[in-house]
Structure formats: structure tokens, C-alpha cells
TrEMBL record:
It comes from Sphingomonas hengshuiensis. GO terms for molecular function: ATP binding; ATP hydrolysis activity. SMART domains: AAA. This is Multidrug ABC transporter ATP-binding protein. The keyword rRNA-binding does not apply. Keywords: ATP-binding, Nucleotide-binding, Transport. Coiled coil: none annotated.
Length: 305
């Protein structure tokens, strides 16, 4: 069980016309984790997911899911993964219960072993079991897609932008269910543009940009890469001229008495910054700080790339 849930080695994809969507991507998704796969639009995330799903043929490289190579053992690889696509895909003429029963049938699950109502209860759709799927709200349709992805109880679940267009309450319910699945041993791969979600949920995060892997670290370690820190200082008089000091990376005036100062933690500390403000003849009334977060790291890495 030490083998990776997903192992990707030197994966490349070049589309007809020369568009290179993936360029030698290599990383492992450890078993039992919630793994974030982040990147700007067009970075190659969906191409990678579609290769794992068997919907896109890779140009070169290899990928295994739960130990099964996607080329040598495609049936076992597909049986080991459930994928919730970014686009909402459903048959409007079937009820949620019928949709899950059909999906289970496609995976060859005998009628007595299907868990359709259990899954609908888990995603809070039990009361909509027999309604037409076309009458469901957008958030309900997304939760139905999660249930469909889990009908064959795969050990790996891939969520591609699962909370796009979902309201706050439904988003919290969805994440609560995903965390329950993870607690039961399901490995979760998540792509999202809500970086605060990724920071709160993911054990490890990989970032792809222009088809290339530019980061792959535990979430805390990745956030710790950010060296910039912001301090807001309110002083006791109107500021006639913004002070300057070598320890300031950037300084801005906010209102008449507040300075917003950015400094690098590897070059200065808060004491030096506040000392520089006082040395300019300004008395400090109030101080607040903001630590860098995943969004800062993400922007710095993707801009540099």
C-alpha cells in the first residue's frame, strides 16, 4: 500500500496543429491524501485529467492509477477512478435514482450490491431521488455528479472545479462529504480556482503552468515559500511625506494616517519596519499584519513561469 494512488511519469500531450498541452509532467499522488492540482486556465489540468479518464490519448510518458497502467490495464485503471467533470453532464429525462442505477449497471455492479439511495442521502439529494434531473438546481446537479462518480466505490476520486457556481451552503456540504470520503480512505484529487479552498483542504499541492509542473510540495511548505509580508501602521498625525527605508519593499499611503508597508521576511523583520517608521518622526497608534497565503505563492510562481 506504499504505492502511489496516481503515478505520472514524463507525461506529454501535443494536439494536432502543434499545441503542446503537457510537457514532461512527472508527479505522484500519495494514497489517502487530498491532493490539489492547480494552475491558470489553459495550463493543462483538464488535459491531464482527461488522459487519466481515458478520454484523451497521451503523446508519450506513462500514468498508473492504483497500480494499474492506463495503457496495459485500461479496464482496471478506469475501475479505480471516479471523475467529476468541470462541465455539468447529465441526462435530463432520468431521475437522480435512475441515473445512479444506470451508471452502476455500466460498471457491471449487480442490483443487490448497488448503493444508489445511500449515495443520494450522502449528497443530500434523497428527497429529489425521483424528480427529473433537469429540475435540479446547478448545485444539486454537481452533487449528483459526485454521487455518479462514486457508484463503483473507486479508491481515487478526481474533482475538476466541483464548486464552480455553487452557493456557500452547498459548497460546505460538498466539502464535508469529500472529507468523509477521504477519512474512509478515498484519495481525492482536486482542481479549483478557489485557492482558499485548496489551502484549507489539501495535504499537498502541485501547480501546472503552460503544461509544465512548476511546484509540488506539502501545502504548509508551499505557503511558507512566500517571503512577502504586509504591515499596516496607523500613526498619530497626518502624513505629509511617505517615509523611505531600505527595509521597505513597497510603501503606500492609505488615507491620511495609515501606511501600508510590504517587506520581505528574509531581509527584514517587523521590528525593523516599525523602527523605521518611528525614526521618520511618526508615532505609532495601531499595527495590523497580513501573512502571505497560497494565492500570493500561486501568483508569484505562475508570473515567474
Amino acid at each position: 500500500m506504499t504505492q502511489a494512488a496516481i503515478a505520472i511519469q514524463n507525461l506529454c500531450k501535443t494536439y494536432q496543429g502543434g499545441k503542446r498541452a503537457l510537457d514532461g509532467v512527472t508527479f505522484d499522488v500519495p494514497r489517502g491524501q487530498i491532493f490539489g492540482l492547480l494552475g491558470p486556465n489553459g495550463a493543462g489540468k483538464s488535459t491531464l485529467i482527461n488522459i487519466l479518464a481515458g478520454l484523451v490519448n497521451k503523446t508519450s510518458g506513462s500514468a498508473t492509477i492504483w497500480g494499474f497502467d492506463i495503457d496495459a490495464h485500461p479496464r482496471n485503471a478506469k475501475a479505480s477512478i471516479g471523475i467529476v467533470n468541470q462541465e455539468i453532464l447529465f441526462d435530463p429525462f432520468f431521475s437522480p435514482l435512475e441515473a445512479l442505477e444506470i451508471q452502476a449497471g455500466l460498471y457491471g455492479i449487480p442490483k443487490g450490491e448497488r448503493r444508489s439511495m445511500e449515495l443520494l442521502r450522502a449528497v443530500h439529494l434523497e428527497d429529489k431521488a425521483n424528480a427529473y434531473a433537469r429540475t435540479l438546481s446547478g448545485g444539486m446537479k454537481r452533487r449528483l455528479m459526485v454521487a455518479k462518480a462514486m457508484v463503483h466505490a473507486p479508491p481515487v476520486l478526481v474533482l475538476d472545479e466541483p464548486t464552480a457556481g455553487v452557493d456557500v451552503e452547498l459548497r460546505q456540504q460538498l466539502w464535508a462529504y469529500v472529507q468523509q470520503l477521504n477519512a474512509r480512505g478515498v484519495t481525492v484529487v482536486l482542481t479549483t480556482h478557489y485557492l482558499e479552498e485548496a489551502e484549507a483542504l489539501c495535504d499537498r499541492i502541485a501547480i501546472i503552468n503552460h503544461g509544465t509542473l512548476i511546484a509540488n510540495k506539502p501545502t504548509r511548505e508551499l505557503v511558507g515559500m512566500a517571503q512577502e509580508k504586509v504591515v499596516e501602521v496607523t500613526v498619530d498625525c497626518d502624513i505629509a511625506a511617505v517615509p523611505d527605508n531600505a527595509c521597505f519593499q513597497k510603501i503606500e499611503l492609505k488615507g491620511e494616517r495609515t501606511l501600508v508597508i510590504t517587506y520581505r521576511k528574509d531581509q527584514a523583520n517587523a521590528g525593523e519596519v516599525l523602527g523605521a517608521v518611528q525614526a521618520a518622526g511618526l508615532g505609532i497608534v495601531d499595527v495590523s499584519t497580513r501573512e502571505a497565503d497560497l494565492e500570493d505563492v500561486f501568483l508569484n510562481l505562475t508570473r515567474a513561469a
